[in-house]
Fold these 4 entries.
Entry 1:
Amino acid sequence: MSTAVQIRTRDPRVILNALADRVPNLITEEEPTLWDREVALLVRDNPIMTRATAQRLLGQAIAYTITAMERPGVDMGVGYTVDVAVHQLILDTWLFFAMCDQYNNGTYKHHAPLIRRRCDGTVLRTAELLRDNGFEVDDELWAKDEATCSPCDNKVPDSH
């Protein structure tokens, strides 16, 4: 008798909203969840971005950030497209510290980008790492930066 293996996809919205108890000061009537807050900040700071695009980007940014924290030392990086949302997470410091506390063993995950983009296939390899880490990958967003690739540098200790 064979037993089917059920693969569960990790939901970035659930992951982000689960941090609410750590940062209750960020929850408001206008943005009742952390997901709503980050989407609203992305739309606010990128006036041509639609809410739907912000949600897609945020989901991929969370998948990337969590994977980078859970797989220290693994060479990975985002392209410009998803990096917009990664920067949003990093800039919302209360939330980013909560993510680090939960997923990086309480240690701050530094961001130390290179000046020049690597152009070595890192972006598409990273998309596969996210998939291997249980996240759904928005292939269209990752493919946009296949040629220009990533400025992320894993040579600085505990950075992405």
Entry 2:
Amino acid sequence: MNHDEHTERTARGTAVYAETFGVSTGELRAVFADRVGRRFADEAVLAAGGPAWHDPSLDDRSRSVAIITALICAGVRGGRLTTHLERAVRAGLDQAALEVLTVLLSLYVGQALTSVAAEEIHTFFAERHDAP
């Protein structure tokens, strides 16, 4: 990767993570490094600037479904899941869609993982006052 490609990927990745964390692009590097360390943050930003987040074959809504599915299946909870729930809402997913996602996933990965995620999704929307 040449310098211009590296710079462009870093800018795109910074924008993705800044939007995900709800901070400005100027704040992102420090916020992310505080969370996971500078090396990991720099590599994650560079990766996010590539096709995973920028190929037009997937829209942001589809990416959110994929990411939340992966997080649920890995047992990720708390702030890491909530960060992506916020992004999913901004991408057009609502409580009903996310609840149905947990029901669908329970058929394939079991209720032990999905029931915990369903509880977090329910709480997330209840706290936002967006519940139906």
Entry 3:
Amino acid sequence: MAKPVCCDPPNEEFEMSIEANKALVRTFYEAIDRADFAALDDLCHKDFVFYSQVDTPKPGVMGFVNSEKAAFDAFESVRFPLEQMVAEGDKVGAYLLFLGKNQIRNLGDLKPRGKDLRISLFCLLTIKDGKIIEKRAHFDNADARAQLTAP
């Protein structure tokens, strides 16, 4: 009797694909951490879409870059370390930190006050044709605002 598909041993090609997806995401976040936004063009699919919140799509790599640069440009000494990844099929989950000091310029309605910001983010990325086609970011806006406005 044949085993059900769910119980078959991992397929070597499938495992290599997962490792390739994780390597792609690692390269993506390394580029962001060093503020090399130009490198993202080669890593993202032509139909890339970024969701900064659940129902807020920003199409194209430039939609993502413009969104991220607004935050990065408000801080000095920005670090964006990738702490952990999990992957399954065409999905890669990435747990990251955002670290920086808000003293360069306004961040939305918040004036720079020299406050350190340390927040965690979880991003879910989808891979298609060896490139990132979708990125969904989830973080606690209220926590970030509280840190930046604390006395």
Entry 4:
Amino acid sequence: MDIPTLLSAYFAAIDDKRLDTDIVAATFLPDGRIVRPDGVALTGPVEILDEQTRSFARFRATHHMLTDHVVTRSGDTAQVRANMQAMHLWNDAGNSAELETHFVAGGVLRAGAEFTPDGWRLSELTMRPTWRTGATTRMFLSAHR
């Protein structure tokens, strides 16, 4: 699978609430890491799965959209830049879709990848938000409430 598809499949698993060990292993190298927008770094499949599951449990729904992938390959490694926009609907939102119950953020996604015998795997994934709107103040609360 190519790198843009790898990224899309990972975020689809988050949005569909089906992130699991197999998806994390098919996305990241064994020592791969995520640097979340709050600066927290997660390293290795166990920590990535545990912390991403805990963090996204705060939301009733999420919707991630990735566009404009720029992939720069050098042998068996690659660097990726993509634009990302994501909606997050807080669990306590009920059935409302008002801005008080969700936030939308956009920014730049960057990833490093390596080609392995099993295909492309991410060595690092980071997201730098450039804007957000809606109920964003809760975004800075700990994922471990």
